[in-house]
Design brief:
The complex is a heterodimer of chains A (about 140) and B (about 500).
Chain A (H helix, E strand, L loop, with lengths): L1 H7 L5 H14 L12 H14 L1 H22 L11 H12 L4 H18 L3 H6 L13
Chain B lengths: L1 E3 L7 E4 L2 E4 L5 H10 L4 E4 L7 H4 L4 H8 L7 E3 L4 E2 L22 H10 L7 H14 L2 E3 L6 H13 L4 E3 L1 E3 L25 H7 L3 E4 L1 E9 L2 E11 L5 E10 L2 E4 L2 H11 L17 E8 L14 E3 L7 E5 L4 H7 L4 H9 L4 E8 L5 E6 L2 E6 L3 H21 L3 E3 L11 H9 L9 E3 L29 E3 L14 H17 L1 H5 L1
Parallel strand pairs in B: 1-10, 2-13, 3-4, 3-14, 4-10, 5-20, 6-22, 14-23
Antiparallel strand pairs in B: 5-6, 7-9, 8-16, 11-12, 12-13, 15-18, 15-21, 15-22, 16-17, 17-18, 19-20
Helix pairs in contact in B: 1-7, 1-13, 5-13, 6-11, 11-12
The chains are: A mainly alpha (about 140), B alpha/beta (about 500).
């Protein structure tokens, strides 16, 4: 994965690729409910665009949050390993704890992570078809 | 004429009578009125000229990325995080808002007159300006058939409970109910600035430079004399091209919105002898309540913001319709993983209505190298308003037939019955439990009766710098309690007339 990320992407380098892929797999896990997975390359290209468009200041903030998620947050919840290397169950548990935390700043880590993967997933045409959205009337709500 | 700032390959010096920073609800009406009076008007707009062809060939998510400032990721911090979507496109936020039009409420004008000594502002004087704005933007009431099922159900639920409501007034012509007002109208039916005031002003010679970022307001002997900035480049104009521009003008109008107007003033250390620049931020904090219905909402049809329940307006609470495509809704639902997928699978059965609070809370805007640092704390009164509003909206949806309700409150995933609402009302809820957004930042360079009480006078000229005007939502001393775009347009139109009535002062 890092091969094509380094080749094609300007703002999303190897470590961020791994984190983003894990985030996407946990927030939009493979299941029968909506049986669609977005190809990694599409996900990362999108993230690279987003990182570019939000400007340097927000980009810096998002990258700090991702690095926190990768290196610090797992330890905080007694998982001794990088977030991107955790099993999907462990990563899911971490997100569950972030998501359910009473402190907004901690919930914010989940929210920022979600912002990077959810809009793309739910604008992807196969997903829209799965949720019975009228794609024709959406003025090309497709990725 | 609209000039794409990306096309320049050398520095530009431009001369004008008036330079306007921003082309939104403040900048465009000012440009129209001044150009019509024969002034040479130049407008510099940081965003691009996104129009119907783009709206019909892109996803709403793509439009948000390119037409919203920081791709929609502007957030205030404080005791609650609030997402504040701001337009960055020709027409400003009007291009990506819901199109709702309200005159400034009489009680707000009276409050300003009585408590803020703004005695030059009166309902009588403003009325012709409101009428003109409504005429030029084709403002009309939403009809029942254009409302969409979501708004119709909420209206019926409110009626059954005896709550007063009404179809909203909107700037629209030949609306087909495409349901995507907040992402650029694909039919040009929403009469936002890019399809109303801007083309009108172009007829009188106003020139708009897109992808143009203002760094400095230049002054000479205490008078504003122009602006200096640079053009962007790249496909969507996000990077400094290194090509500079200077606009020399007799009058400078700052209309960059309530977040960026104070940033420009602070960066330039201008007009802040009162210490009020960036303070007094009001935002109309908002939240959404969602209901699950057995029938399909067909929520890609109809006008998302079409109906208003104002029964509790005296208490600072109003309800306005809202709906967004799946890409945006997915971030707004407090679930993830399989649970989120299960809920999104029911997307077509979900309905949502917005709560807007006439805030008594306030915040401030600071900047770091041109980036906004926004702080806003929700006070207890406003927290209690939200609490009450969530309960009322939930009751309305139950009355309308919702099977269960998703409240926007951390720790309260679902209301299945009135009992759950009662439990919620008895529970202690903190500001950061609410999932908040805000669409109407205001007040950060407010009008005052004198230089100690405001940044600008009642004609919207700064007290400190001659010929420097502020013409956007920054001017309001309090929040309005209603969507502000019509108020901005009317106040700006009035201020331009005042300026033109003193022609010799500004244009000799």
């Amino acid at each position: 994965m890092s091969k094509y990320s380094e080749k094609y992407f300007k703002y999303v380098s190897g470590v961020y690729c791994s984190i983003l892929k894990q985030i996407a797999d946990v927030i939009n896990p493979e299941d029968d409910i909506i049986d669609v997975k977005i190809p990694d390359e599409v996900l990362l290209k999108e993230a690279d665009d987003f990182f570019f468009l939000v400007g340097w200041f927000n980009r810096l903030g998002i990258k700090i949050v991702l690095l926190l998620l990768e290196f610090i947050i797992p330890i905080f919840f007694f998982h001794f390993g990088r977030f991107s290397k955790l099993s999907q169950d462990d990563a899911y548990n971490i997100f569950q704890k972030l998501h359910d935390n009473k402190i907004f700043a901690i919930r914010g880590i989940y929210l920022i992570s979600a912002m990077l993967v959810l809009p793309l997933y739910y604008s992807y045409e196969p997903v829209l078809k799965e949720i019975n959205y009228n794609v024709e009337n959406l003025n090309k709500e497709v990725a | 004429m609209i000039v794409d700032g990306r096309k320049f390959d050398s520095n530009q010096i431009i001369e004008a009578d008036v330079v306007i920073i921003g082309s939104g609800a403040g900048g465009a009406p000012a440009a129209y009125r001044l150009a019509k009076a024969g002034k040479k008007v130049v407008v510099v707009e940081e965003g691009g000229n996104f129009a119907k062809d783009f709206f019909n060939s892109s996803t709403p998510y793509e439009r948000m990325k390119y037409m919203y400032r920081n791709s929609g990721a502007v957030v205030s911090l404080g005791n609650a995080g609030v997402v504040i979507p701001l337009g960055k496109t020709l027409g400003g936020t009007t291009t990506v808002n819901s199109g709702t039009m309200f005159k400034t409420p009489d009680e707000v004008i009276n409050l300003w007159r009585n408590n803020y000594n703004l005695t030059e502002i009166s309902n009588e004087e403003l009325l012709p300006y409101f009428n003109e704005v409504e005429e030029l933007t084709d403002t009309t009431d939403v009809t029942w058939d254009l409302m969409g099922i979501n708004n119709q159900l909420f209206a019926e639920g409110a009626k059954k409970l005896g709550y007063h409501g009404f179809p909203l007034r909107r700037n629209m012509k030949d609306c087909q109910g495409g349901g995507l007002c907040a992402f650029g109208c694909p039919h040009d039916a929403k009469r936002s600035m890019n399809v109303s005031y801007i083309p009108l002003s172009e007829k009188y010679g106003a020139v708009y430079y897109t992808y143009s970022h203002v760094e400095n307001i230049t002054t000479k002997s205490g008078k504003a004399v122009g602006v200096i900035g640079y053009f962007y480049n790249g496909r969507f104009g996000q990077e400094n091209s290194g090509i500079k521009f200077e606009v020399k003008a007799n009058v400078v109008i700052l209309a960059a919105g309530s977040i960026y107007t104070p940033i420009i003033l602070k960066k330039n250390k201008l007009a802040n002898s009162s210490g009020l620049v960036g303070k007094n931020l009001r935002i109309h904090p908002a939240a959404k309540v969602m209901g699950y219905f057995e029938e399909s909402m067909e929520n890609w049809k109809g006008i998302p913001q079409a109906y208003c329940v104002d029964e509790f307006a005296d208490e600072g609470i109003i309800f306005e319709g809202f709906w967004i495509p799946p890409s945006m809704l997915s971030i707004a639902i407090p679930k993830f993983g399989h649970e989120l997928k299960t809920m999104m699978k029911d997307y077509t059965h979900l309905a949502g209505f917005g709560i807007m609070v006439h805030d008594t809370s306030s915040g401030n805007v600071n900047q770091f190298k041109g980036n906004p640092l926004i702080k806003y704390n929700l006070n207890n009164d406003d927290v209690n308003r939200f609490k009450k509003a969530v309960a009322i909206a939930s009751e309305i949806y139950f009355e309308a037939g919702a099977k269960h309700i998703y409240p926007p409150v951390f720790g309260f995933e679902e209301f299945k019955s009135q009992k759950d609402i009662d439990h919620f009302l008895k529970s202690k809820v903190k500001a950061d439990f609410f999932e908040l957004s805000a669409f109407h930042p205001m007040g950060t360079a407010k009008m005052g009766a004198n230089p100690k009480e405001g940044v600008i006078d009642q004609n919207l000229e700064t007290f400190d710098i001659d010929s420097l005007f502020i013409m956007d939502a920054s001017i309001f001393p309090t929040s309005l309690g209603v969507n502000p775009q019509e108020s901005i347009m009317a106040f700006v139109s009035r201020a331009v007339d005042k300026m033109l009535s003193r022609e010799e002062k500004y244009f000799n």
